[in-house]
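User: Now give one protein:

AI:
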Amino acid sequence: MSEVITGRPVWIGGFELSNQLNAVALDLGADDLDGTTLANDTRVHKRGLKTAGFSIEGFFDSELDAQQFSNMDSAEVPVAVAAQEGNVGELAYFFKTMQSTYQHGGSVGELHSITAGGNARGDVARGTIHVNATGQTADGASAGIQQGAVASGAKLVAGLFVTSLSGIAPTLDVTIESDDNSGFTTAVERINFATASAIGGQILELSGPVTDDYWRVDFTLGGTAPSFNFFVVVGIQ
């Protein structure tokens, strides 16, 4: 079924940019290698290394410009792109990027526009959104999602993006937990993000095997009158 592209959140570092962007693209592929020998009478093709990149287009503002300018000096920038509306349970792609391009400008009478892009540093993870919180002021946990076990040789990958915070010395501690049942009666901590006390993003990995097949996000807020906007995505690859 076809879908109209609207409301596709894009997180780069600690910024959600859907209000500034009008286009986003993921470029996923693999090298097509020619393995033909003298003994073959038909071309033989083999898959080589995977490739991944992204590009964005949008409209200039000072906050977006400052972020994109800073990203050009960063070896790793966390990125997440929602495939749908950004709701809990929906699909998102996330990865670390080495941003390599940033342009802005335009012609007289036109809106000041920007384009930017880069290549993934490592694999692109395909995951499920567990949290997309706005104005979170209390501790809590997401509902468990049965995403499956992590096989030997596979990885659990999780991304945390903090886009806004307020209060006096606010902090956010986020943990990814697993269990073998939907009630999480024997929950086990699997990934612990560094305490977040500023806008920013983190992507962490855990190597399998993990036999548990239910996953959730647990979070604790600290400080005086803390409030956070944050997003968590979890995938197995």
Summary: The longest strand covers residues 155-179. The mean pLDDT is 93.
